[in-house]
Design a protein that fits this description.
The protein is an all-alpha fold. It has helices at about 1-55, 70-80, 85-115, 120-130, 135-145, 150-175, 180-185, 190-230, 235-245, 250-285. It is found in: Cell membrane.
Length: about 280
């Protein structure tokens, strides 16, 4: 009798496994097709943009204001050959990374402190809000007095920009946890460490990940602004010096390089965000 049952059940089980495998394969093919369509559409948009740019340069708009794409490409190629492109990229990216770390870590620590202490939040939050309302450019003269001109200034500007973008997300992310849920977790026997690692941080993680989409490129923007105003090297300096010399090709080339770096950073943030959200799901189980 058992043999007959096995004979009946096994084919059904095999069919179910085959159906799941087929559905998984179809889903994978669908995702690949969607990814291919997205990539093709983006490449097509770039090609159309370059064609329109080529047509407009020299015909609709004077090349003094709008250089041809080939002229911009030649400018970038010259920078690659003489090594200035890599030198200036590093001169910008190093302080951007330093500013991001300083601003990000400060925002995480203070955001957590403000969220956990009602007294600290009540006393200091209005001052943080007032500082947030000050344009960063208005702080540059003060930062020059305190930090001088050079890499330290670029790091300072970048850190300030990043701090405010992440601080409020950490603050509201931790505050977003319902007190009833915290009480239930404590009743279940969770330690303070478990409460932080499995409740508060996963809750804040979604907010922090969302802020990275803005904080990472703005770390670069902060450095470029500082270089544009006072720098002697870096992508911001390249941009300002070419603009001052009325070199349209060099100015556009600087913008293209910055756009390429921003795109690369956006892809990196996207991959980090996916892994972080996967960790959040694991931590909440």
């Amino acid at each position: 009798m058992s043999t007959n049952i096995e004979e009946v059940v096994t084919p059904d089980r095999d069919d179910a496994v085959a159906a799941v495998a087929k559905a998984s394969m179809l889903g994978k093919k669908k995702r690949q097709r969607k990814s291919w369509i997205q990539t093709s559409s983006r490449l097509g948009a770039v090609v159309v943009f370059l064609i329109l740019w080529s047509v407009a340069a020299g015909t609709l708009v004077d090349t003094f204001y709008l250089p041809e794409p080939t002229a911009v490409a030649e400018e970038i190629w010259d920078w690659i050959l003489d090594g200035s492109l890599w030198t200036n990229i590093m001169a910008t990216m190093v302080p951007a990374a330093q500013g991001f770390l300083i601003g990000g870590i400060s925002a995480l620590v203070l955001g957590y402190l403000f969220a956990m202490s009602k007294t600290v939040s009540m006393v200091l939050e209005p001052f943080v809000a007032a500082a947030y309302g000050i344009p960063v450019v208005a702080l540059v003269p003060l930062l020059i007095l305190w930090l001088g001109i050079g890499r330290s200034l670029a790091v300072g500007v970048s850190a300030i920009v990043v701090f405010f973008l992440i601080f409020y997300n950490v603050y509201f992310g931790i505050k977003d946890v319902k007190q009833e849920f915290i009480d239930q977790v404590r009743i279940a026997g969770a330690s303070q460490w478990d409460l932080v690692m499995r409740v508060r941080l996963p809750s804040a993680l979604v907010w922090v990940v969302a802020s990275l989409k803005l904080a990472v490129p703005h770390a670069l923007v902060g450095v470029v602004v500082a270089e544009f105003l006072t720098g002697s090297e870096g992508l911001g300096f390249m941009l300002s010096s070419n603009a001052a010399q009325f070199n349209a090709a060099g100015t556009f080339a600087s913008v293209v390089v910055l756009a390429a770096i921003s795109f690369a950073l956006d892809r990196i943030v996207f991959m980090i965000s996916r892994r972080a959200l996967m960790w959040k799901e694991t931590a909440e189980r």
